[in-house]
Amino acid sequence: MTDHLLSLMTFFPLVGMLIVLFLPREADRLIKTVTLIVTIIVFLISLPLAFDDVFLTSSAMHYTEFVNWISIGQYFQMNYNVGIDGISLWLVLLTTFIMPIAILSTWNAVDKNTKGFMALALLLETGMLGAFIALDLFLFYVFWELMLVPMYFMIGIWGGKNRIYAAVKFFLFTAVGSLLMLVAIIYVYYFSMKAGVPFENGFSIAHFAQLDIPANLQMWLFAAFAFSFAIKVPMFPFHTWLPDAHTEAPTAGSVILAAILLKMGTYGFIRFAIPLFPVATMKFTPLLATLAVIGIIYGALVAMMQDDVKKLVAYSSVSHLGFVMLGIFAMNLQGLAGGMLQMINHGISTGALFLIVGFLYERRHTRLIADFGGLSKVMPVFAVIFMIMTFSSVGLPGTNGFVGEFLILVGAFEGGLRVYTVFATTGVILAAVYMLWMFQRVMMGKVTNPKNENLKDLSAREMVIMLPLLLFVFWIGFYPNTFLSKMNPTLENLVEQVKGKQQIAMMAEDMEQSVTKIAVNDLR
Amino acid sequence: MSVNDLLALTPILILVLGGTALLMVCAWYRAPRPLLAGGVTVALMAALAAGLVPPPATEISGLFSATSYARFFTILWSLLAAAGIMISARYVIDWRLGAGEYVSLVLYAAAGMALLSSATHLLGLFLALETFTLAFYILIACNRRCEFAAEAGLKYLLTGAVATGFMAFGIALIYASSGSLHLPEALTSLTTATGALQAWGFLGWGMFLVAIGFKISLAPFHLWTADVYQGAPAPVSGLLATGSKGAVVAALVGVIAVAGPVWHDLQDLLWFMAVITMLAGAFGAFTQQNLKRLLAYSSVVHMGTLLVGLICQSAEGNVATVFYLVAYVITSFGAFAVIASLADERGEPMHFDQWRGLGYRHPIRCAVLSLFLLSLAGLPATAGFMAKLVIFQAALHSGFTGLVLVGIFASLISFAFYLRVILVLYQSQNETSSWHPGSAMEHAVLTVCASAVLLLGLFPGILLDLISLILT
């Protein structure tokens, strides 16, 4: 059972998709119920991972599976090679945890061709889980592309008014990056073949990480990977697809996109780009940290000026993911742990905020801040939950956001990114400005618009959706160790590996410089 | 011509004689169904013969080869002809096209394609090319009630005639400077003792390539493609897009294997042609509002990508090219088959307005069409992805990074226009009317194509191993 736990978890949604496809098209409720049950079962399958104490001490891959999949003569070998460690553990659990919530949120929101939507959602879950557990670069690429298609159709078919534009933009942005990544993947593969990595290992990242790739080649390969991941994150100049995609996507789509798909980018950096190309990482750190800080401040400033709640939350994602990137490139334990934790936090709080926007939209069919005001009097329970999620997004002490951002800032400050940290800290303040200002305009004051007078408070279903998210807001806020202790061994190991290689490269460079100096002196 | 030669030619003879027999029979007996069934049987028998009867000789009269490579393509084109007849059945019956004539023309075309893929002599190549081109002139224009069909037939005829002229003159020049029309010699004797290339021979090969460019619609010779595919009946367009082009590419793979230094000198030219073909096809398809025209431009992009594989001139590149070819043939034919299966007395659904929301009316066939389009776009887990992967991989290995980047850019644009079609299929539900439910034979062809696309996407090793085997 535990031998194939990961495969079972990854492909069970696919089985669910087949079941859904054979259900009668008119049976809306039945389709939704079946999908919900499938996603809950997937969550239950993944749950033992959370209680496995092996992650407390070991940085290695666990639950590994290895099967030869495709071999092409003597040219190519791809394997089904999966496993899980402290980095992917919580992201996998976040995925299986968010999916039932996202499905539950569609109960009344999706009424057009439900069957297609649910089938795509399940396909998407397989893609996401597969991408998080893949240890073979090629397998990762297959899952990575597999995620793209369902999301494209979710936006393009069930989206808002400008859905086609948003869907095409989303697809083109992500496809540009991923195709370049594919070229880089093949290139690394050839390099490994030349370096004598056994053919049977295929695209195994564990072996790629041991390669000694020349620094100038690393720069190109890192650039190709980083470009692809930076689009997905999204980092500052590549973020323009995000607000469009979010505004047009249906609520469940937005939740999945924000909570999980964006994490693919940051996860890609930690899992692939950094360990595979440590020297290039070192060289690119100033650039990426600058972009991260620009993203933090720019995202916050743009979010402040939005008049659409959903767009505001979308731009706040740009800002939050900037923090994650800053933490990752601090390249020390605090920074990385903060980045990882903030990935989870962002999934929970921004996912929750998109759900909240969805609740508002279902009631009023508008998302403009100006159309609301004084809702806290009409919907008191909703107001409390919204407030907690706002605090969590702002990073108030006691909520999950605080722990993540604090660790990131400490890590970045100690990790040689001091100036960046100073600027990034303004982002925390700006976050408070835009979130609280929005909250005030939507929830506080008097009810000015008569249409808002008779809004219903949260239903039982909506409470069920929000309660688990609330639980984690406080759990991570008060006792983050549950989560941190299981990712620390892996992250420590990562930092050690990367730092080691970077130091060797730096020493080699120093040697070269001193050799040239000596040579110059000799000439004199 | 000895008995051995005839035995080696068995599959082709079955196609040609079977086609002729059916043509004779239809002079007296005009019921369409038995004739169509007869055509399918003949094509399947030819495929069976090619697979089961071992050829006693590997070369036939110095014109054609009977190697396992030739046999592989004979089987492929025979099966394609069988599938082509199966999806044409309703057209032939409903439009009263004359079953005997139609079937025999398809069989002749298949014979021509099979011969072309196995040609080892420039004359053999020329004859085979003209054989199926002639058959297609008629097939394209066979529906006399459609005003576009006549236009399409004429366009194909005119460009075909120009291409024939180029090819004949090119072959003459090659013969003048090399003294041979047999394939290794026609290329290898082009260089003088000092290693310099003879100018006339080089010009000859250039003209030859122009003719090839017309046939497989490489830019800038691709302009006829969209009009012809739009005007011809969908099954014929399907055969034209896959078989007629595939046979030429298959022949080129054979030529390149022995080309030597001439190829090297042509490489820059071909590099340029591949780049503009991929880009012209991708940008051409981008603005189309008609699925058949879109598929025509898509075939242009794919031909450009195939050229990338050919340019590598390595064993790996050839394997990749053949694999890509097979994947493309199955996928593109499948897409045309979906159009054919939806056609009814109003004609074929072509314009995007006719496709809008059709995904809710005909869910299964539109899902299959989406699968084909995704495969043409090259999404993982489909045959098209594997095909693109092996081609680009081979090109990277041979050092054509620039070509790969252009190819990836073209793929990117392709993604946009293929996906747009799928979005159209699943837009608003209530606007369109239903089309034909499709016959059992059409469904069978679609099932086979769709399964093959998935199978090759998930387990490409089977076919790749086979191809490496037949190419050595």
Quick overview of this protein structure:
With 524 residues, chain A is mainly alpha-helical.
Task: Lay out the secondary structure.
The complex is a heterodimer of chains A (524) and B (472).
Chain A: H1 5-21, H2 28-50, H3 54-57, E1 62-72, E2 76-84, H4 86-105, H5 114-133, H6 137-158, H7 163-194, H8 205-209, H9 215-232, H10 241-248, H11 251-276, H12 278-304, H13 309-330, H14 333-364, H15 375-378, H16 380-394, H17 400-414, H18 418-443, H19 460-478, H20 481-523
Antiparallel strand pairs in A: 1-2
Helix pairs in contact in A: 1-2, 1-5, 2-4, 2-5, 4-5, 4-11, 4-14, 4-19, 4-20, 5-6, 6-7, 6-11, 7-9, 7-10, 9-11, 9-12, 10-13, 11-13, 11-14, 12-13, 12-18, 13-14, 13-17, 13-18, 14-16, 14-17, 14-19, 14-20, 16-18, 17-18, 17-19
Chain B: H1 3-8, H2 10-28, H3 32-52, E1 59-60, E2 64-65, H4 68-94, H5 99-117, H6 122-140, H7 147-178, H8 183-188, H9 199-215, H10 224-231, H11 234-257, H12 261-286, H13 291-312, H14 315-342, H15 352-355, H16 358-361, H17 363-377, H18 383-397, H19 401-425, H20 440-458, H21 461-471
Antiparallel strand pairs in B: 1-2
Helix pairs in contact in B: 2-3, 2-5, 3-4, 3-5, 4-5, 4-11, 4-14, 5-6, 5-11, 6-7, 6-11, 7-9, 7-10, 10-11, 10-13, 11-13, 11-14, 12-13, 12-19, 13-14, 13-18, 13-19, 14-17, 14-18, 14-20, 14-21, 17-19, 18-20
